[in-house]
């Protein structure tokens, strides 16, 4: 049995070395620890980071936990990244407090930390490359009000109630409606983990409960697609405003099922994070916040090169 | 009656112990060492003190949960609620310490008591209401996930008002005695839990009945043992251990994260199975489970250190889990 084991081990070594690829010793290495990985949004951030890595001739890796609730798994990833003696680190915290001990360690080792996306609630990161989610969701609220004529019932399907983006997008939208549109009534705010199927079911129950509902805001890609699916299955014509992009959402806008959506600039987030890290290593001074921008897009401007460049499939 | 029962259970235990001799443990340990050797050769950054401590720290929560799951799995049951029960207990600690401002020992006891209580409820549903363990604990998993969100108001509860709370898992008692070995307290707790559990399983009546329930529950019951009672006790102990895991994770994150927990049961079950505990019950060791949990952590960390693309990390982990269990089966055949 020992022989079989050794054989398996040997195959293992071969496979691992093959997967790891050649590791040059002297290059600049910048690991990015993100909040997620599988989602197309994160893949777009990764693509931006890889582009910057190519432009600035540095090596990056991009990792994130399977789910945005796995705070401890993300901390383990950060810990492993630090063990690799990187020159700088990009980090999007799921929970800032939990990461503080490791960030202090990075600081002590003089490894510059660049925060991205939802950022890190601490003084340690040199800068944060992120979307202003409150302003972006407020724009979605304005668009919603415009489409439904400034009055009537609406609802929100949000990805979660604990993350910074979930809270900011919900509050940005809800507060704008409350401040500017007194005749609009938000009947329900529900949470579907950004899961397509769950968000679909939530949408259907909201529509079932509110026959006069005029519109729903889906606060991230998964939520927005769920809203589209739910409305389609219930055969209801409502105004849907989405968030982020992705193939299905783009298609829904083209087919007129969705009025339009807010897009962040995920490619820009990834690019600016790596760029800021490189600048920090050169000793350049960085602003505390790098606004990576957002846009409202619909059928009319989707093919505009400025917009299509930040949309992802 | 009792003497027959004792003999019966002793016989069952004896066969269980004999079928997994010291040889197997050495081999399981050897595969862990082999894995570490591979990573050490592949990257100089792997075998560093800080990284090894990082691996141990990453094992603390999953290891304790896996110990909790080992008890239940040896009885032939399954517990899908260990992850969300851990979260629920963390939230309870948060309520006692942060919301109510009670002293730290009270919060610690409350978390463990909450775990034991929930475990006993699962046990009662399984033993008395005859709901299959898979379904009973699936229900508990969802129930506790929901309750954790409700009680916390869906927001993380921070322990900033209890400045000593992070000590539970972050600081190092060993490090104050041996400065070159700053092993975090969370890891120390894992080892204490493992050693105590191992003694309970191998040296006490509870341990004997745990194995006996998994080997032949009907025979044990017919010999006059109150199997329902012992089953509830096993789930209660398992729940209390989940409470300890809740304290470790809450202390590590300095917060109770109410949305976390689902999915952790699968990592725990994987560690148990890699460690040679049979999912059909009657056979298993705590040492095996700890080695299983370490194999998962070493693998996860090593693949990260090698900068293997994340999608491939998942593929490799899946393959290794299957290989580990297959090797265990081969070993067993060879012995039989």
TrEMBL record, chain A:
Predominant place of localization: other
Alphabetized GO MF terms: carbohydrate binding
Subcellular location: Cell envelope
Domain of life of the source: Bacteria
Record key words, sorted: Signal
Signal peptide (from-to): 1-25
Gene3D superfamilies: 3.40.50.2300
GO CC list: cell envelope
UniProt domain Periplasmic binding protein: residue ranges: 32-285
The UniProt record lists the keyword Signal: yes
Keyword Signal in record: yes
Pfam families tied to this protein: Peripla_BP_4 (PF13407)
Family, similarity comment: Belongs to the bacterial solute-binding protein 2 family.
Name the record gives this protein: LacI family transcriptional regulator
Organism: Microvirga vignae
């Amino acid at each position: 049995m020992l022989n079989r084991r050794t054989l398996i081990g040997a195959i293992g070594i071969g496979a691992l070395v093959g997967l790891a690829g050649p590791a040059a010793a002297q290059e600049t290495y910048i690991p990015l620890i993100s909040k997620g990985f599988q989602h197309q949004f994160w893949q777009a951030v990764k693509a931006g980071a890889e582009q910057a890595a190519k432009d600035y001739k540095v090596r990056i890796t991009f990792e994130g936990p399977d789910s945005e609730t796995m705070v401890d798994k993300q901390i383990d990833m950060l810990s492993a990244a630090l063990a690799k003696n990187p020159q700088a680190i990009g980090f999007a915290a799921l929970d800032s407090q939990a990461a503080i001990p490791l960030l202090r360690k990075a600081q002590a080792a003089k490894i510059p930390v660049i925060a991205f996306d939802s950022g890190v609630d601490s003084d340690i990161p040199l800068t944060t490359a992120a979307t202003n989610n409150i302003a972006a969701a407020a724009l979605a609220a304005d668009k919603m009000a415009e489409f439904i004529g400034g009055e009537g019932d609406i609802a929100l399907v949000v990805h979660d109630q604990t993350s910074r983006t979930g809270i900011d997008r919900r509050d940005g939208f809800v507060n704008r409606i409350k401040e500017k549109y007194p005749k609009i009534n938000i009947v329900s705010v529900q949470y579907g983990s950004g899961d397509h199927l769950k968000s679909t079911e939530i949408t259907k129950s909201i529509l079932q409960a509110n026959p006069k509902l005029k519109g729903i805001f889906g606060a991230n890609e998964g939520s927005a697609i769920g809203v589209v699916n739910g409305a389609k299955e219930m055969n209801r014509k409502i105004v849907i405003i989405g968030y982020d992009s992705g193939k299905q959402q783009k298609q829904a806008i083209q087919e007129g099922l969705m009025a339009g959506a807010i897009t962040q600039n995920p490619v820009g987030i990834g690019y600016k994070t790596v760029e800021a890290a490189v600048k920090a290593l050169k000793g350049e001074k960085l602003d505390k916040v790098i606004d990576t921008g957002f846009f409202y897009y619909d059928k009319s401007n989707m093919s505009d090169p400025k917009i299509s460049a930040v949309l992802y499939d | 009656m009792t003497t027959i029962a004792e003999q019966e259970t002793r016989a069952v235990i004896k066969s269980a112990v004999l079928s997994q001799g010291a040889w197997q443990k050495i081999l399981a340990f050897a595969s862990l060492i082999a894995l570490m050797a591979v990573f050490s050769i592949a990257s100089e950054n792997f075998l560093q003190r800080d990284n090894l401590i990082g691996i141990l720290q990453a094992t603390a929560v999953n290891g304790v949960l896996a110990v909790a799951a080992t008890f239940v799995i040896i009885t032939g049951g399954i517990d899908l609620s260990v992850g969300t029960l851990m979260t629920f207990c963390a939230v309870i600690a948060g309520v006692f310490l942060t919301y109510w401002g009670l002293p730290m020992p009270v919060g610690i006891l409350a978390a463990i008591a909450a775990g034991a209580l929930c475990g006993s409820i699962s046990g009662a549903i399984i033993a008395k209401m005859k709901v299959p363990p898979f379904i009973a604990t699936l229900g508990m998993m969802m129930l506790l996930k929901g309750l954790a969100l409700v009680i916390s108001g869906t927001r993380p509860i921070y322990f900033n008002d209890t400045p000593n709370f992070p000590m539970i898992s972050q600081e190092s008692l060993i490090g104050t005695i041996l400065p070159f070995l700053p092993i975090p307290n969370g890891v120390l707790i894992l080892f204490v839990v493992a050693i105590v559990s191992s003694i309970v399983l191998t040296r006490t009546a509870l341990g004997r009945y745990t194995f006996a329930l998994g080997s032949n529950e009907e025979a044990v019951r017919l010999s006059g043992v109150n199997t329902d009672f012992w089953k509830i006790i096993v789930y209660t102990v398992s729940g209390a251990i989940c409470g300890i895991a809740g304290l470790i994770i809450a202390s590590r994150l300095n917060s109770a994260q109410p949305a976390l927990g689902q999915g952790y049961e699968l990592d725990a079950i994987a560690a148990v199975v890699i460690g040679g505990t049979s999912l059909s019950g009657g056979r298993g060791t705590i040492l095996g489970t700890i080695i299983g949990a370490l194999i998962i952590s070493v693998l996860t960390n090593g693949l990260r250190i090698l900068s293997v693309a994340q999608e491939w990390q998942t593929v490799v982990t899946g393959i290794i889990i299957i290989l580990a269990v297959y090797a265990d089966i081969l070993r067993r055949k060879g012995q039989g």
